[in-house]
Amino acid sequence: MSIATSDIARAKTMQLATSRDGQPWVCTVYFVIKNSNLYWLSFPDRRHSSELADNPKAAVAIAVEQDVPVVGVQAEGDVRLVKDPAEAEGVLESYVEKYGKGRDFIGLLKEGRNRHDLYCLVPRKVMIFDERSGEGVPYRQITLTD
Q1: Residue 31: per-residue pLDDT
Q2: pLDDT recorded at residue 137
Q3: Would residue 43 count as lying in a domain?
Q4: How many domains does the chain have?
Q5: Which range of residues forms the domain containing residue 19?
Q6: Residue 99: phi, psi to the nearest 5?
Q7: pTM of model > 0.90
Q8: Within 10 A of 139 (CB to CB), how many other CB atoms are there?
């Protein structure tokens, strides 16, 4: 059995790894997949957000199946702030559908009053560890798609 992006997208949270001055940090965020990228909302004063402002390189881990057999995704890439309202609107539609939150973000973004920032990880490399695949090689590179 192989893994699909829709299986990954059903996971509710992902772990986000950032660093500053060689010191790593990991936090948990809610996320959506859109246009082969990973998006999340966060306050700009959170540790991970301020670290990303200094160093946009990050890694994420998503537990797809937490029981045996284990299935998880890891990715590395660069993070950017989403400033374009059209991009944010498309992403937030997915976010609202998944979590039932974030409806007012677009209006607040357009008005310059949003408390959260929308972040986008553009993956350079996405790997899956899939013990249930039965393919003999549980760790392989994949591509995220909508």
Answers
A1: 95
A2: 65
A3: yes
A4: 1
A5: 5-141
A6: -115, -15
A7: no
A8: 12
> Over the chain (146 residues), what is each successive 10-residue block's mean pLDDT?
69 96 95 94 95 96 84 94 90 91 79 88 91 68 69
- CATH number, domain with residue 80: 2.30.110.10
Written as six digits, the tokens of 124 are 């350079």
First to last CA, the chain: 19
In a domain, 69, yes or no: yes
Structural tokens at position 23: 């010191």
The token duo for 142 is 């994949």
